[in-house]
Amino acid sequence: MLSNQQPQLIAVVPAAGVGSRMRSDRPKQYLKIHGITVLEHTVNKLLSHKLIGKVIIAISENDEYFPKLDLARNPDVIRVVGGGERADSVMSALRYVVNHFSTEWVLVHDAARPCFQLSDVDTLIDASFKNHIGGILASPVTDTMKRGDTSGRIEHTIDRRDMWHAFTPQMFKVKLLFNALSGALDSGVSITDEASALEWSGTKPELVKGQTSNIKITQPEDLALAAFYISRDKG
Ligand code: CTP
Ligand code: MG
């Protein structure tokens, strides 16, 4: 069980994407749900967790939206400059963590996932403290999986047993993640989540089952679903 004696944790939030698949007039983290931006929903929920003390947000260099938010004046929120790919943005925030904090553990969470459950974060933290490496929130694949060819026809069906959707938060020891991510980026490996960097370095992070409502807002239709989950959880 978690207790108040545990060290404070730091969360890193990559929020420097442009949201091209969302096709809206601004990056999706600045679209509003129930009057506040997706980024505020995400960061406020992270800060409401009793073990998370600071949130480091990676923001694009010429972002005109962030300075207008209350978050920009929150003493528990630190802004760093993001990079060209998600992994570069995470790396930028991790570099800040390594240089300014002695905290052992970090959680990395997408700005575009405002619907995560605090109870799932508890489960992830518990599992990470127990396995000493860390892990990710994830969910077993339920649909039948097909591999397509370039003309959109089915090559074959993939066995879905042991297949998982990878979510965030992903929680790791700061130094382990920093070394794995910088090593993977230096080697030119394609990294789409933190666990990929750990896998590349030969570590096996734990899969921690979380709620499927932890969607990543990606396409226009996702916004209404996120709004539904947020109001359901508030009610
Ligand atoms: N992200 C980031 N820096 C980048 C790219 C993405 O910090 N260079 C962040 C996004 O802001 C988002 C998270 O990583 O919170 C997950 O990425 P994704 O869903 O792919 O967001 P976008 O890259 O913004 O969207 P798209 O791929 O549709 O352009
Ligand atoms: Mg992207």
TrEMBL record:
Stored Gene3D superfamilies: Spore Coat Polysaccharide Biosynthesis Protein SpsA, Chain A
Family note: Belongs to the IspD/TarI cytidylyltransferase family. IspD subfamily.
Function: Catalyzes the formation of 4-diphosphocytidyl-2-C-methyl-D-erythritol from CTP and 2-C-methyl-D-erythritol 4-phosphate (MEP).
EC number: 2.7.7.60
Swiss-Prot/TrEMBL site (Transition state stabilizer) positions: R21, K28
Catalytic activity entry: 2-C-methyl-D-erythritol 4-phosphate + CTP + H(+) = 4-CDP-2-C-methyl-D-erythritol + diphosphate
Coiled coil residues, start to end: none
One GO MF term: 2-C-methyl-D-erythritol 4-phosphate cytidylyltransferase activity
Alphabetic keyword roster: Isoprene biosynthesis, Nucleotidyltransferase, Transferase
Lineage of source species: Bacteria, Pseudomonadati, Pseudomonadota, Gammaproteobacteria, Vibrionales
Annotated site location: Positions MEP for the nucleophilic attack: R160, K216
Protein name according to UniProt: 2-C-methyl-D-erythritol 4-phosphate cytidylyltransferase
Pathway: Isoprenoid biosynthesis; isopentenyl diphosphate biosynthesis via DXP pathway; isopentenyl diphosphate from 1-deoxy-D-xylulose 5-phosphate: step 2/6
Entry-linked PANTHER family: 2-C-METHYL-D-ERYTHRITOL 4-PHOSPHATE CYTIDYLYLTRANSFERASE, CHLOROPLASTIC
A GO biological process held by the record: isopentenyl diphosphate biosynthetic process, methylerythritol 4-phosphate pathway
Uppermost EC category: transferase
Domain of life of the native organism: Bacteria
